[in-house]
Input
Amino acid sequence: EPGVNAAYMGWIYVPTKPEPPHLIFALDFEGDRKRIFDAAGEATSQFLGDSEFVDFIDIHDNSTSVNDYFLKQTKPFYSKLNGIDA
Output
């Protein structure tokens, strides 16, 4: 997706919520959020089982511990500047 500048991937589990552990993608992007998240959802859906799901978040959407984790403690698996090997 041309508007995506970087993408981070993690595994999340929040014991206080009913969702099972699942993948989470944090995206640094420019452009239409709905269009980008819809395209990302469509791209990942082919790899998921019936009861599996993934979350997508805007890496700059609110400063939360999840956003801080991706920005401060990980590296993107994709960066527009460096291609896939960020």
